[in-house]
Amino acid sequence: MRVAVVIVTYNSADALGSCLASLPDGLDGVDLTEIVVADNASRDSTCEIAKNFTKLPVRVVDLGRNAGYAAGINAGIASLGSYDAVLVINPDVRIRPGAVAKLAEVFRRPRVGIAAPKLENTDGSLQPSLRRPPTVLRAWAEALIGGNRAGRWGTLGELITDPQRYDLAGPATWATGGVLMISAEAVLTAGRWDESFLLYGEETDFALRAGSLGLMTWYTPDAVFEHDGGESGTNPMLWALLTVNRTRVVRRHYGFWAWAGYYAAVVVGEGIRAASGRPTAKLALEWLLKPSRRLRVLPQ
């Protein structure tokens, strides 16, 4: 299979070197077409690190501004030549040897448009990455008892936390966007990623769009990638953006009434946590209740 790689970066000098270093062994077994670093106007040495990597040819696409994750994916994919699938990864990812070929095997199944791997933390522990469909019941459960606790009670939470599920290959509603492989058919059929999400929610929207067109997301535990994880749980701006985008996805794909119940649950949940003094929840609640305060453009 001909595989292209798109790495979306923004001030990623601390992480990109180890990501690139993992590529030669990680790509063993596939026909690599090209590697593109789609950079959101980094102010550090990210682009220099990419250009100076000698083990494999790397091309930098400079977006000229901090346009977001979806914009980086769109720009990177638009610059590619011919390929059968494109591997989209964050710069804080390391690819285990042979993992890309194992991920590409997923497309032997009919009607698979997106392949999702198993993610592990730096210590080798499981990093939950699969999600169930967002529903009003799940939103209220997470609001009242917390997302992690809800995830441990059967199918009550959106995030799948049961370790046994991650030992089994199978379809998923959507998966964390830090590592995804997308078929050329899905790129053509589902179209561009929605850049209005900026960060978070764009992978959900793309997976749901692809699914509605008959192209499913398939998870395989055979392909293992190491992922540092993000700062959304501690950074108020990122958490607020993630929270608002969750409600936007529901409105777009499930309709007004589902959105109304879901939105109410998210507001209550963030309100409870804001009352306890959590800075992330305070900003998320403000953005939920006052749309004019929401971030429209990422900081440059």
Q: What this model shows, in words?
A:
The chain is globular and about 50 Å long. With 300 residues, it is of the alpha/beta class. It folds into two domains: 186 residues, Spore Coat Polysaccharide Biosynthesis Protein SpsA, Chain A (Alpha-Beta Complex), CATH 3.90.550; 58 residues, no CATH class. Helix 3 links the parallel strand 2 and strand 3. It has twelve helices and eleven strands.
pLDDT averaged residue by residue: 95
Question: What is the beta-strand fraction?
Answer: 15-25%
Specify the helix fraction band: 25-40%
Let me know the largest β-sheet: 9 strands, mixed
**Number of domains as seen in the coordinates:** 2
Radius of gyration from the alpha-carbon trace, in angstroms: 19 Å
- According to DSSP, the number of beta strands is 11
Which spans of ≥5 residues are poorly predicted at pLDDT below 50?
none
CATH architecture of the largest domain: Alpha-Beta Complex
Structural class: alpha/beta
Keywords:
nine-stranded mixed sheet; 12 helices; 39% helix; glycosyltransferase; 300 residues; alpha/beta; 2 domains; Glycosyltransferase family 2 protein; Spore Coat Polysaccharide Biosynthesis Protein SpsA, Chain A
